[in-house]
Amino acid sequence: MDVELEKNWQDVCKKLSLQFDQDLDLQGILFLIGVQELGKGYKVFAKDEKLELMHIAVCTLLTSFGYYEFAGRDDQGWPHWNLNEKLPPLKPMQQELLVKEAIVEYFKGELTSDT
Question: Domain total for the chain?
Fold first, then answer.
C-alpha cells in the first residue's frame, strides 16, 4: 500500500472509530457506508441484510471508478446497481487496496481534521 493511502486510511479509521466509540475495521466501515446509503437510519439488521448493506457499500464505492451505475431503488427502498465494467482479476490484497482507496475518497472532505 502506498504511504499516502495508508496514512489516509488510518485517518479515516481513527476518525470513524472515535465518532462511533468503537474500533472499526474495513468490514465495519463498509457496513456504515451501506447503512448511510440505504438511507433508513440505523436499526437491527438480519444477517442477510448486513451482507446486502456491505454489497450496497461496495457498489456505491466502485461507482466512482466506473464499475457500477446506480439503477434505482426497489419498492422497499433498497438501492440497486448495474454492472458497467467487469472488475479486472485482482488478488485479495489488490481488492482490499481498491476498496480502501474508494473509502478514503468517499469520506474525503466529510471528516474534518480535528485529531
Answer: 1
Residue 89 falls within a domain, yes or no? Answer: yes
Q: Of the candidates 37, 50, 45, which has an alpha carbon nearest to the alpha carbon of residue 80?
A: 37
**CA 95 – CA 14 distance, rounded (Å):** 22
Contact 53, 34 (CB under 8 A): yes
- pLDDT tens by residue, the chain, 115 residues: 589 999 999 999 999 999 999 999 999 999 999 999 999 887 899 999 999 999 999 999 999 999 999 999 999 999 999 999 888 898 999 999 999 999 999 998 776 555 4
Whether 81 and 69 have beta carbons less than 8 Å apart is answered as yes
* 69 three-state secondary structure: strand
Residue 11: domain span: 3-107
- Examine residue 76 and state whether it is found in any structural domain, yes or no: yes
Say if CB 99 and CB 58 are below 8 A apart: yes
Three cell numbers, residue 80: 440497486
Domain annotation covers residue 112: no
